[in-house]
Amino acid sequence: MLPATIGVFALQGDVREHLAALTALGVDAIGVRRPEELERCDGLVIPGGESTTMYKLAKTFELFEPLQKRVAEGMPAFGTCAGMIMLADRVEDGTADQVTLGGLDITVRRNAFGRQVDSFETELDFTGVDHPVHAVFIRAPWVESAGEGVEVLARVEGTREGAEADGRIVAVRQGQVMATSFHPEVGGDLSIHRLFVELVEKQ
Ligand code: GLN
């Protein structure tokens, strides 16, 4: 069987780290800047970065509508941090002109942890991973609410960030779309990327 081709949205964000993680797992990983590149992909990662800028660049490069169409048609997608915001159906604390691709029946709150502290690291229990996952949060969103069809994969517990942060949902999956508030591409643990590769290979 040929390895799956997994794209990384490459107009903005920490693209290189995701390409490295995917390549280490043996898939054909490519940066996606143009609709022709998206057409080659069996799945897509949307990295961390800045979701408002991602939206504007995707519009400018005529990638927004093709992306939205592929996700709506069932292409597996995995968003991290800003990528989670891009895949959310609803955003709190977004900019007035912010538009997302959608795909996940969740409401995310942008920069949610930022009210206490900009960035932090913690260990998480993650459904489908047999060890605690080291999670790096950088001006991260959290999932404010999730629809019935959404599986919660991880929550933050007992962090220094305080009561408001505790118990918040930070990883979800709905069908073939998954997202994390944190950056699994940072730190060398490939477990979460492996879950996504398995999701792509099952399609
Ligand atoms: N705060 C960023 C946003 O709103 C996300 C931060 C990140 O991806 N590290 O898009």
Key words describing this protein structure:
single chain; 203 residues; alpha/beta; Rossmann fold; seven-stranded mixed beta sheet; 30% strand; globular
Please explain how this structure is put together:
There is one protein chain. With 203 residues, this protein is α/β, with parallel strands linked by helices. The protein has a single domain, classed as Class I glutamine amidotransferase (GATase) domain (Rossmann fold, 3-Layer(aba) Sandwich), CATH 3.40.50. 26% of the residues lie in helices and 30% in strands. It has helices at residues 15-24, 35-39, 51-60, 64-72, 82-87, 191-202, and strands spanning 5-9, 28-32, 43-46, 77-80, 88-92, 104-109, 119-124, 133-138, 142-146, 151-155, 169-174, 177-180. It has a seven-stranded mixed β-sheet with strand order 2-1-3-4-12-11-10. The chain has a three-stranded mixed β-sheet with strand order 5-6-9. The mean pLDDT is 94. The structure holds glutamine.
